[in-house]
Design goal:
Blueprint: H1 3-13, H2 17-31, H3 38-45, H4 59-73, H5 83-100, H6 116-131, H7 136-158, H8 165-176, H9 186-198, H10 202-217
């Protein structure tokens, strides 16, 4: 056996399902999920591609496990607080986690074989809404509405061409405003100028919309 083959055997022996999944998440964080393949993952692990199938039977099973890692990072709604505060904390946590793993946004609701963290998360959210007095159907509607807002915001935020308020201010002055002559686009020009001066804060923008959603849901519950 050559030295290279010996190293390959040793690397394969050091593998575990957790190591495979964690490395897959790291790769997706760096390069996106579209380019993730068993061959690419095996190369990052220094292992043989076929050896990965001992731990995950398919790419779909790998994606299930990766999404479970993402759900594991999300804070569950605390039981001891009122439902709006609990769901607000959970939603803020989802946004923060998806900012670290933007590739996961489109996969959070796609899994047909959800892992344990995924299921625990959904159970905790449903339990919070049911304890707050939302009937079963209303709790489902509320859950979907909240997730639609959070995932939609996360997707929009991930696609923004700037990362900070300073970058936005520079882009507003150098890129956006020159394309918005006030005689042709008076309201867009005004909005861009005001936002640039005030400082765009995605976290504040997120909380503003989230609080409106939570307030709109309040009348749908039947307090016990």
């Amino acid at each position: 056996m050559s030295a290279r083959e010996q190293r390959q055997v040793a690397s394969d022996a050091a593998l575990s399902r957790q190591r495979v999944v964690v490395e897959a998440v790291r790769l997706a964080d760096r390069e996106g999920v579209d380019g993730l393949s068993m061959r690419r993952l095996a190369g990052a692990l220094g292992a043989g591609a076929m050896s990965l199938y001992y731990y995950v039977a398919s790419k779909e099973e790998l994606l299930d496990a990766m999404i479970d890692v993402v759900f594991e990072e999300i804070e569950l709604p605390p039981e001891e607080t009122d439902w709006q505060s609990a769901m607000r904390r959970r939603a803020v946590s989802v946004r923060q986690v998806l900012a670290r793993h933007p590739w996961a946004i489109g996969l959070m609701e796609s899994r047909t074989s959800p892992g344990p963290a995924n299921l625990r998360h959904r159970e905790a959210v449903t339990a919070c809404l049911r304890r707050a007095g939302f009937p079963v159907l209303m709790a489902t509607h509320a859950n979907w509405l909240l997730d639609s807002y959070v995932y939609g915001f996360a997707l929009q935020e991930a696609s923004l061409p700037f990362d900070t308020a300073d970058e936005f201010a520079d882009m507003a002055e150098d890129v956006f405003l020159p394309q918005l002559p006030p005689d042709e686009f008076p309201y867009l020009n005004e909005s861009a100028a005001v936002l640039a001066a005030a400082g765009y804060d995605p976290a504040e923008e997120f909380t503003f919309g989230l609080d409106l959603v939570l307030a709109a849901l309040e009348p749908l519950r039947v307090p016990t």
